[in-house]
Amino acid sequence: MTAAIELRGVRKEFPGGAVAVDDVSLTVGAGSVFGVVGHSGAGKSTLLRLVNGLEEPTAGSVLLDGQDLAALGERRLRPVRRDIGMIFQQFNLFRSRTVLGNVTYPLRLAGLDRAAARARAEETLDFVGLAGHGKRYPEQLSGGQRQRVGIARALATRPKVLLCDEATSALDPQTTGEVLALLRRVNRELGVTILLITHEMEVVRTLCDRVAVMEDGRVVESGEVYEVFARPAHPTTAAFVRSALHGEPDGPLLERLRARHPGRLVTVPVVDGAAVLDDLSPLLRENGVDFTLVHGGVAEVRGRPLGSVTLALRGGDAAVEAVVRGLAAPAQREAGVR
Ligand SMILES: Nc1ncnc2c1ncn2[C@@H]1O[C@H](COP(=O)(O)OP(=O)(O)OP(=O)(O)O)[C@@H](O)[C@H]1O
């Protein structure tokens, strides 16, 4: 069960004049995972509230499965809302209800009888790895377990779309990884379309197919995740990407590296499909140049390598120059050898 989400020229202006979302158009393909990143105040939460029908656009339209939400009216919107599940940064569980009580709640609202709701809730808790935890209360659970309950509650009614509002921002890195792995299963095994908002590029790197970067209510850049990571066009995107890759040394770090390492420093990008690293070792050998690896990191983005390594080259001036020239040959210049 899956559905596409489409925003066409969406604007949201609040009474008083604040424009939270400004002419945003984007398409979340059915069965895909789409991330929206941006700093606080960029308009991400408002965008999500427009998609789940809690806010109405001032202009433009939001379509779920091709249906314009604003054109539906409250009565016809209700069943469509059931196709949308949502999870939150602070989990938003009922503290006075057990885990099972939290997960059966939306099912009872949807009209399932007690036995059917219980059976469905247990099946869903099993899917999120919480079989046997039904009788516990939220405060007896870890943050990661609470978010699993949140995910189970959101999935219990078998929605086509899952909206995630900073779903891992309150969790430590390991728990974040576990929750992201669960969300990937939700997408792959259940086919649920996922739209998430986050300020963590790490979440985008590991989970999303496509990403849009928001600033001041507008989308400043969007695209397939690897492409955006490898070639960010907007400065805000570039800063977000740097926060997730830690690859290229910035100015001050470069100065410290220079002070510590004699020789010429070169930073070699590692981009899937660009053969720069493959060229490096024969170039060094041919010219009799030695090297020390002084900085760098290669991460996996959507299953493909991306990052950079910085080397201090040691050898005669002419030999080092030949290596640098070889690396910066026209075919590689595009990849940005420096
Ligand atoms: N109900 C509202 N009334 C007036 N202004 C609002 C309202 N909701 C949001 N805004 C304004 O719209 C802008 C975008 O807010 P929004 O919460 O969507 O951003 P955000 O990217 O989700 O930030 P955060 O991560 O801090 O929630 C902000 O300037 C905010 O003050």
TrEMBL record:
Metal-binding keyword on record: no
Keywords per UniProt: Amino-acid transport, ATP-binding, Cell membrane, Hydrolase, Membrane, Nucleotide-binding, Translocase, Transport
Catalytic activity, EC: 3.6.3.-
InterPro entries named in the record: AAA+_ATPase, ABC_transporter-like_ATP-bd, ABC_transporter-like_CS, ACT-like_dom_sf, MetN_ABC, MetN_ABC_transporter-like, NIL_domain, P-loop_NTPase
Gene Ontology CC terms, in alphabetical order: plasma membrane
GO MF terms held by the record: ATP binding; ATP hydrolysis activity
Matches recorded under SUPFAM superfamilies: ACT-like, P-loop containing nucleoside triphosphate hydrolases
EC top class named in words: hydrolase
Entry's Gene Ontology BP terms: amino acid transport
Protein's job: Part of the ABC transporter FtsEX involved in cellular division. Has ATPase activity.
Family designation: Belongs to the ABC transporter superfamily.
Subunit structure: Homodimer. Forms a membrane-associated complex with FtsX.
PANTHER family attached to this UniProt entry: AMINO ACID IMPORT ATP-BINDING PROTEIN, METHIONINE IMPORT ATP-BINDING PROTEIN METN
Protein name: Methionine import ATP-binding protein MetN 2
Organism of derivation: Streptomyces lavendulae subsp. lavendulae
Lineage: Bacteria, Bacillati, Actinomycetota, Actinomycetes, Kitasatosporales
Gene expressing this chain: metN2
